[in-house]
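dude i think i finally got it to work??
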Amino acid sequence: MEIVIAFLLGTFFSFIGSIPPATLNLSVLQLGLERKRAIALRFTLAVTLIEYPYAWIGVVFEEWVRSAPGITGNFQLITACVMTVLGVFNLWSVRKPSEFAVKFNQSGFRRGLVLSILNPMAIPFWVGITAYLKEQQWLVLDTGWHVHSYVLGTAVGVFLLLLLFIYLAEWVSRYVKDNRLVKLVPGITLLLLGVYAFGVYFFSN
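look at this
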């Protein structure tokens, strides 16, 4: 029973934790708006595969990461850089698509792997969530089976959320077909989030 609870908790918190705008869900949203379902699904599969080891690191090294707050700050700086660069890249590719931009945007699995690896904020997120669940005595991670059930749930949760994003974006795209402004929204959002993350990083240090 505790294994099932661990799986469900991982799934639930991964699902709701993936809702706020970020690099990965905005990328999937953009693919959905462009009605590139096959590419979006391959992207989602890659994100799911990377979520598993990142969540595992967050769970296994929870106490160590919490005792070294500088590590979390570095993760945030990496995320800020990735968001800003991707925001500029997306806006540029919409305005004047280069051969590289076209190939990158058409890639699914490889693109998802690269962006997931460059998005390490999943680690401190799972450190915080896991610590909270343990303190509330909702989560038991006494064995490897408990840990991997919980981590598997985190992968399933992000997969379900991104899948939902794909189909919602496709539904919206029917009403805003070929609207140039819609194609700019993910890039603008990523750029703003990147600038905000830079501000948080520098003003908190």
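The chain has ten helices and no strands.
im so relieved honestly
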